[in-house]
Amino acid sequence: MSYFTPGNLEIANEIISRYPVAKSALIQLLHLAQEQEGWVTDDAMRQIAELTDTTPAEVKGTGSFYEMFKFHPVGKYMVNVCTNLSCQLLGGEELLAHAEKTLGVKAGGTTADGMFTIEDVECIAACTEAPCLQINYRYRLRVSGDDFDDLIDDIRNGRAGDIPEHGTLGRVRQHIPAAAMAGVLPPEQAKERPVWLARNDEPAPAGTAEGEEE
Amino acid sequence: MSRYVPHAPGYVDNGGPKIVTSRFEHDDSFTLDRYEATDGYRGLRRALDRTPAQVHDEVREATVLGRGGAGFPAGVKWGFMPPGKFPYYLVVNGDESEPGTYKDRLLMERDPHQLIEGCLITCYALGLAQCFLYVRGEMALAQERLARALNDAYAKGYVGKNILGTDFSVDITLTWGAGAYIVGEETALIESLEGNRGMPRLKPPYFPAAIGLYGQPTIVNNVETLANLPFVALNGSASYTAIGTPTSPGTRMIAVSGHVKRPGVYEIINGSTTFRDIIYGDEFSQGIRDDNDLKAFVPGGGSAPWFVEDQLDIPFEGKEAGAAGSMLGSGAIMVMDSTTDIPHAAYTLTKFYAHESCGKCTPCREGGTWLMRMLERVVAGHGTDADLDQMREIGQTICPGDMPHASSKRLGLEAVPFPYKMTTICFVGPSAWAPLHSALTLFPEEFEAIVTKVPKRVSIPVTALSGADV
Asked: What is the pLDDT of residue A98?
């Protein structure tokens, strides 16, 4: 039985078709699984292994290296407060302490209602707007304690429309129409010299000489 | 003249020459319509009118220095690929996660087509089979903007089969990272793209240009590096080298954060703008908050040894920063004023690198963690002066020999130039030590003030047992 929904299975196969080797799609499929259920289940990893010609152990082995993948249920909203240097200098640690107090859980914990998980994270690349945080990877900048409480209030009352539930990253997907694709081949089948490099063999017209482009 | 641009939070237009941020003023800068209306894809068209070798020469002549950290010229890096060993690949490093750094995120969010055009020019010049655009996992908006831009560019024939009706064809595959700092290291990035844990490969033999993705020659370039190429292809290398200095042409994106009056991401003239301009200049960060004194600043991302006020007049130029004991790295300047608790600041960075160690090399995995734990004890007030000696000893295990640091008139210290020696495969190990080493070297009194002095422990030599009746 398929773990992925029919729609997601189609997306999974399209993703795989964009890589020369199926295993390269492994991390992308873990994202897709996390999008489907909010975390990565054992069933998801079994199917990803089938799709990428690997074993479930390899999928877990790769996936567990990356901090965004969760192998247990987490809150619908992942609150990631930055405490790296730029934020720390301007109150990141105080913001984290405030968040922990407001939500009543320590970093790494999930609220009893399953709504929020707090994480103490490293630099999220908004250093000039410190202290900053992400909720499900959407930025909130120069966040004060009051701002934080308002944000939580907005989410609890359905007023934070730009923030999807945990698991959803980019909501626009790459899609390449088959006719527009240059063609993705496994490396062992792509040993031909690209045709346009023949332009380097001037003055001979394109396509008449074989050689090296340097 | 300089202004904060509200739809690109963080970016400040400082009124200087613009190569990569020229469209940031438009609130629809990320759309194909805006891109085409502002010279977009004209660099690609001009490249396609010339031979691939001519385009490569143009980039080599422009001396576009890599903007990811190492600062190696892109055109020279490109020349390292062994001839004829097809297929060749392009991997775009958009896994920006060096503490203090964000320029690639803005370039991806605000001008995705410029990056795509840079990728296409590279693929054309080098005969690359495919391009993988690896975007940091946490950057959801950049992922969305790039996906939309790629879909639009495919629809208009800029990417894919027979680009603009020519014999040039290449696919660009958008890939999301998943939260691992180390994947910003080029060989770890390749491992990640192959579906593995992001652990760096040993160099040699795994120089990506020789043995990269799937064992094939692979160019790994930073987002900002590639974003410079449409300008070079359209205007020629002479227009590019007319800005900046001979050793550091063009412009550079930098992020100034911490205790300054106006933190921001700025596009500065490369090579000649000094740290004093950047931190105190009216067009830039306008000085230290509350007019406090400057205590220290990180000149090039969390990995870089620290500078103090003695280094303010050094220009933003790789060799000069190196001679002064640090590096420009990823262009992240983090400013600490007189109120900063230096041991705590060092702890924050050491903790980061200990946390982000991939675990492959023992000096980094164990050493970084030891440094973090000992420093945690010191910062909490439970450390002894023996801890400080022990930390230096661990540092020597990671970086044997003289460790680079800045000069200090206050302490009568001479600079030790960059780079360091290292016992690890990649720079993450040394990065766990570099900030702490700077803090210990430039502000020893702050550590001495919080540790307890203990008498030196005397080890009992093994020979003490000789003659024992056993």
From this structure: 98
In this structure, are B162 and B274 located in the same domain? no
Are residue B97 and residue B237 in the same domain, yes or no?
yes
Q: What is the pTM of this model?
A: 0.95
Taking an 8 Å cut-off on Cβ atoms, the answer to whether B178 and A182 are in contact is no
Could you tell me the pLDDT band of residue A160, with boundaries at 50, 70 and 90?
confident
pLDDT digits (tens, 9 = 90+) for B389-444: 999 999 999 999 999 999 999 999 999 999 999 999 999 999 999 999 999 999 99
The pLDDT, as a whole number, for residue A210 is: 40
Question: What's the mean pLDDT in B305-317?
Answer: 97
> Which residues span the domain enclosing B407?
342-448
Instruction: Give residue for tokens 């082995």.
Output: A61
Residue B336 sits at the chain A interface (C-beta within 8 Å): yes
Instruction: Identify whether residues B219 and B362 lie together within a single domain.
Output: no
> Pick from A66, A65, A45: which is nearest to A56 by CA?
A45
Q: In this complex, how many residue pairs, one in chain A and one in chain B, have their CB atoms less than 8 Å apart?
A: 250
Task: Please tell me whether the interface predicted TM-score (ipTM) of this complex is above 0.90.
Answer: yes
Average pLDDT of span A84-112: 98
Domain count along chain B: 3
Give the ranges where B65-217 is alpha helix by DSSP (H): 74-78, 104-110, 112-126, 140-155, 186-193
Overall average pLDDT of the A190-210 stretch: 75
Would you call A26 an interface residue with chain B, using a CB distance cutoff of 8 Å?
Answer: yes
Q: How many CB atoms lie within 10 A of CB B62?
A: 25
Q: Which residue of A has its CA nearest to B264?
A: A128
Q: Are B306 and B355 found together in one domain?
A: no
Distance from the A1 Cα atom to the nearest Cα atom in chain B, whole angstroms: 24
Q: How many CB atoms lie within 10 A of CB B163?
A: 24
Considering only CB atoms, A67 lies closest to which of B102, B124, B179, namely: B179
> 3-state DSSP call for residue B238?
helix
Helix (H) or strand (E) holding A61: helix A56-63
Q: Which domain holds residue A214?
A: 184-214
The C-alpha torsion from A53 through A56 and A57 to A62, rounded to 10°, is 70
Interchain proximity B178–A52, CB inside 8 Å: no
Counting the structural domains of chain A, the total is 3
Asked if the model's pLDDT at residue B2 lies above 70, the reply is yes
Report which of B209, B187, B172, B214 is spatially closest to residue A24, judged by C-alpha positions: B214
B91, B138, B259, best to mutate vs chain A, most A CBs in 10 Å: B138
Question: Does the structure show a pLDDT above 90 at B1?
Answer: no
Contact: B51, A54; criterion CB under 8 Å: no
Of residues A104, A98, A107, A110, the one with CA closest to residue A147: A98
B210 lies within 8 A of chain A by CB: no
CB contact under 8 A, A175 and B151: yes
